[in-house]
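The instructor's notes for this session suggest beginning with a concrete chain rather than abstract definitions. Hand out the sequence below and ask the class to guess, before any prediction is shown, which regions might be ordered.
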Amino acid sequence: MKSTAAIYTLILTVVAIGAIFLLRDSDDNGPATLQHAKQIEEPAPQEVVAKGDSTPQPIESRIAEPREQGSPPGLYRSFEKSQDLSQTLVELEYRIAAGDSTAMVLAAKALVECALLKVDPLHVETMRQISEIAKQNGLHEIPPRFLAEHEARCGALARSVAPVESAASLMHKALERENPVALAQELTSRSATTSDVEAKSIATRVLETKDPYAIAQLSELMSQDDRMGRFSGTRASKFTWQFVACDLGMDCSSDSYIVRQTCLFYLACGNGGYKDVVRYTMSTPAEFQRILSQEQEILFLIAQGRWAEIFQ
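After discussion, reveal the predicted structure:
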């Protein structure tokens, strides 16, 4: 019983630190650059409204003309397999300067991923302790290689003091270019103040790109907002849409980014690919069968371009 209490205490500590850090407002003090790309200022792009605009505006009114139809898979794979995100940000800098919205999104993701290690240099050691306690209680431990990879990916970025552009600012710029991932994230963060009609219209635009990374981002909204139709409003809805993203090209193998991040930050670890992790650690047998059934139904409707039926 004491060991179980210790697990929850450690988990709550990690989650509390993450929540405080990720919910801080962006504090841009004028133009910033990604030169040297090694400093986290404001990691979580919860709001992407221009500085000084305190009144939420309709999402569509703040988006430029469409410029991209989907995320380049190669660029995402390079980000996901990177062993040093500080170096990855340096490599993305010229793309960002050229207006590449996918590079902007990935730079923001890197800053968010390394945020906890930035505010808590002992974060990885804390996770090792949690993993050991879980193992002693017969639960899945965090694979040591995941901890080592996270420390390697974020170490230099977390230790850096050179100024970089905030994650919120990067996502704002990506949204202006109608990047589908940024659009899905903005819709998720603004869903409470977005009408049903507008929300479904924007979600349809995201689905039309068939961008797996944008659909994975949209899964958050689909789990939270039951206005979005019969494939929304439950915890299982998130997994359903993530599975759709896997089917459309997102890497969900046992060595994938989503498996590693789910294990590290949600403590849902297991053997196999992401679908196996969900099946054995995050859903009941009945839920899992429902997830698989809805996954296939959504894929069929996407292939047919029957967008309205998805949100009925």
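Then share the key points. Residues 1-48+84-177 form one domain. Residues 2-22 form the longest helix (21 residues).
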